[in-house]
Amino acid sequence: xxxEDRIDARGDxxxxxxxxxxALLGIGTAAPECRLDQRDxxxxxxxxxxxxxQRDQARWAKRIFHQSxxxxxxxxxxxxxxxxxxxxxxxxxxxxxxPRTSERMALYREHAPVLxxxxxxxxxxxxxxxxxxITHVITVSCxxxxxxxxxxxxxxxxxxxxxxxxxxLTFLGxxxxxxxxxxxxxxxxxxASAVALIVCVELCTLHTQPSGDRESLYAAAFFGDGAxxxxxxHAGGELQAGDHFLLDEGVSELASEAADAMKWTVGDNGFDxxxxxxxxxxxxxxxxxxxxxxxxxxxxAWWAIHPGGRxxxxxxxxxxxxxxxxxxxxxxxxxxxxxxSSATILYVLRGMREQLRASGGGPSExxxxxxxxxxxxxxxxxxxVPAATREGEGGLARDTxxxxxxxxxxxxxxxxxxxxxxxxx
Length: 425
What we know:
Peroxisomal Thiolase, Chain A, domain 1, two-stranded antiparallel sheet, 38% helix
């Protein structure tokens, strides 16, 4: 398919091929039907632990569930919404009754493609991009795997090009949604005809462990299942009508000296998680320097923080002197969905876009931040460009001079091979 044909496939048959800055053009999300109420889940779990004589663990579970910042989550394991004694996944279940890894992977194989497709179709619809225009697909997951993989299955389900370039990002953890956005931005910046579809799907609750130890209970308290997707392409001219995020160059840093603070390994009964209680403290040691190197003198108007847990959002708010309004989108996603690993950051950006839309302001610059095993931190500067920023005849019209100025500046720096933030480390 030629570049002109791809432009035809994008919606309004508009053939302007002006190469502009790279932008996140649309977002889609999908969650399973089964909803977990945090209070009810904590009560059921505590009762189940008490029934098997684990009273201390029951008390601790109630406390950590209450302090998690989560009110609801979603799961592909309906038995987690019932009595703990009837669920083979619940902490306190005898190991011999708990599902083996192969059984959990079979459920992943059943549910992950369905959620991924829903999120992908939502992103395509939101962006106005036709599936036939997609040149690259990046799939992201750390909670399951199979071959041929999710990337190949999505290509079939969505009717993507046979010559599609597929890039699975597997087992990278919570920061991987940002890794995918950074990677897509780099791919699209180097190819005027490229349009990338990112799809993240995580079924974290599949790996709920039968153990009553604190690490297992902590994981059971705030992880949820969900999928998210976005379309990354070129903005500029009349091809896009705003309401998107222009993407600047991103950066990833690895603090390998803190590698033991966050672990995710394959076990006999699913995947085993270890999260050190020192993670917020460690992020406080590394992230400020990273922000200084990447965005010195930069004052974001908004922040999109991966809500890896209430303590992480609290730490970021304190470190950077943020207001409650600055962290609202992150806390709202944590409250309503829990931590969905790599899929979470696009939920936050969706919420941030809703906030920025409602504000009625003009283009505004922000910073997205996510963390994962390694210890890894991903940062990405963005500029939100609203669909309408001034009043015109017949209602609202785009402030095209402002938008074109931003697009031209970012596209010029992209072509020159330098980032708008001047980061070369």
